Amino acid sequence: FKYSSYNLPPGSLGFPFIGQSISLLRALRSNTDYQWYQGRIKKYGPVSKMWLFGSPAVMMAGPAANHFIFSNKDLLFTGTRSVNLLTGRNILMLSGEELKQVRSALQNFLSPEMVIKYVSKMDREVRRHVKLNWVGHKTVTVLPLAKRLMFDIICSVIFGQEAGSVREALATDFQTLVKAALSIPLKVPFTRFSKGFNASKRIRKVLRGIARERETLLQQGHGASADDFFTYMLASRAEGAHLLTVEDIVDNAIFLLIAGYETSSVLITFMLWHLDKEPEVLGKITEEQDEIARNKGPDDALTWDDVSRMKYTWKVAMETLRTIPPIFGSFRTATKDIEYQGYHIPKGWLVFTAQPVTHLDANIFAEPSKFDPARFENNSSIPPYCFVPFGGGPRMCPGNEFARTETLVTMHYLVMQFKWKMCCKDEGYKKDPSPMPLLGLPIELQPRCLPENAHA
Ligand code: HEM
């Protein structure tokens, strides 16, 4: 009734607050989400309305919808209530001048010029992990190991020299926090949410302490050589680049730590999952990595130049991101009434687009279910807004170069040192909502005979 003068998109809103949430979450869990989106598109067309996650929502599909969502200035990022309560005032919740300042600071901190400096830290962490958790083991379970590795890498960049002690203290709390992010925000003891909330308080206390310490060091003129996120943000504040308080810097550090390890660990896990089924692709990656190793001494760390030569390995990563994107969709909220393809979208409604709709469209990617890294041979043949694992437009993932580099460094050492076989050949996966192999991907490991002169 409220919208009687509006031309709302087709589709039923269903039960208020619940609507289609359970049905979408169920489809994600059973890995039939693509069929779920297609079912709606067939029934209502590429734009349709529903209730989702407590809000009236509009699902849009296709490259034009991706473009619209990524670039419309009246659509804002929104976290769920749980995410907002757990992670505080981070980049996802900001708008206007504050967003501009934070976005620019994070983008600079993760820019290619900075990532070049992080390669040696990544190399050190990957070698340490491989030695500790992989070498000498007959079987390992990939997902938890990849998560811990990616967490330690992002910690080494956020905390700098003190990363070791901080990450030991916080790793479990971060896992609890991430698990709570999609829970119902009930502060009742022993619920997922209240455990996450307590974890977030502990994390915030430790990070606040570190930030204050770095602030004092900077004021005393001792911070110049520090290379951690806190010093970087405090120094850029002193130069007038932003006005963030210590509390804001802590909130953004928490968000970076989460954003920085969940997604890339999924990518690494599914690269190994695909490679187990694709011996030819594995052969080509191995050739590329052997060639890089051949030109290095046994203890030489990988360099930016080495990473830049891993072109085929990155194509395999892109094909993995196309087939199993770590983030299934982009969500925004309309800050005022807007129009899309003749339909009205009222202020306050959620708008979302799902990546698989374009990633698995046969008109864009021929034989979409085939795993074929060669389709990325010529990137310009992929039309704009069709391959969007990192989103697009002004809010595109600023960590994409960081993710590319840590993924390639990790794949180098895994491919060089091991052959692997999935313990359960037909292990499938679910999305909860990030994709995860049903058993976490247990694999049998065998050390690989290295080519002559190769480093490891
Ligand atoms: C394979 C790995 C990754 C994937 C697939 C990925 C994907 C994404 C996507 C889809 C978005 C949201 C885009 C949107 O809705 O428009 C995003 C945002 C973001 N990502 Fe990533 N990401 C990855 C790794 C990383 C890493 C390693 C970092 C940090 C070190 C990072 C930091 C961020 C941040 C800060 C945002 C929010 C940007 C903003 O609000 O403007 N991501 N990412």
From TrEMBL:
PROSITE patterns in alphabetical order: CYTOCHROME_P450
UniProt cross-references to InterPro entries, sorted A to Z: Cyt_P450, Cyt_P450_CS, Cyt_P450_E_grp-I, Cyt_P450_sf
Annotated GO MF terms: heme binding; iron ion binding; monooxygenase activity; oxidoreductase activity, acting on paired donors, with incorporation or reduction of molecular oxygen
Source organism of this protein record: Oryza meyeriana var. granulata
SUPFAM superfamilies from the UniProt entry: Cytochrome P450
Protein known as: Cytochrome P450
Any Pfam family hit: p450
Cofactor: heme
Family recorded in the similarity comment: Belongs to the cytochrome P450 family.
Binding site for heme: 397
Keywords: Heme, Iron, Membrane, Metal-binding, Monooxygenase, Oxidoreductase, Signal, Transmembrane, Transmembrane helix
